[in-house]
Design a protein that fits this description.
This protein has 100 residues and is mainly alpha-helical. Helix content is 56%, strand content 0%.
């Protein structure tokens, strides 16, 4: 569980990431330290990164994927049904989405 002061600092840094503002290396290290240990912080970081990358998009499907936290963490990957296996595509998805 995060302390209130830690959570507030994390959310302040993530809001700057989402807006595309400057974030120092020390702040990124701080965020990644918590994201590697806490699934919630990891989801917050993915969402902030996706918001930064997709600020101009208004596609409803993209909004749905963002809301469900189903986007790939790599912004340059896209699903191609002719070349990609759907099971492998979701291999990086949260545990609640993967097959058991």
């Amino acid at each position: 569980m995060l302390r209130t002061s830690t959570r507030v600092r994390i959310q302040e840094i993530l809001s700057r990431i989402a807006k595309g503002d400057i974030v120092t290396l020390q702040e990124r290290i701080f965020i990644n330290k918590y994201a590697s240990r806490d699934q919630t912080v990891s989801a917050w970081l993915r969402k902030a990164s996706n918001l930064q990358q997709n600020q101009s998009e208004s596609n409803p499907i993209d909004h749905l994927l963002d809301g469900l936290d189903l986007r790939s963490s790599d912004p340059h990957t896209t699903y191609n049904p002719e070349q990609d296996d759907l099971g492998e595509w979701f291999s990086g998805a949260p545990s609640w989405i993967r097959r058991s």
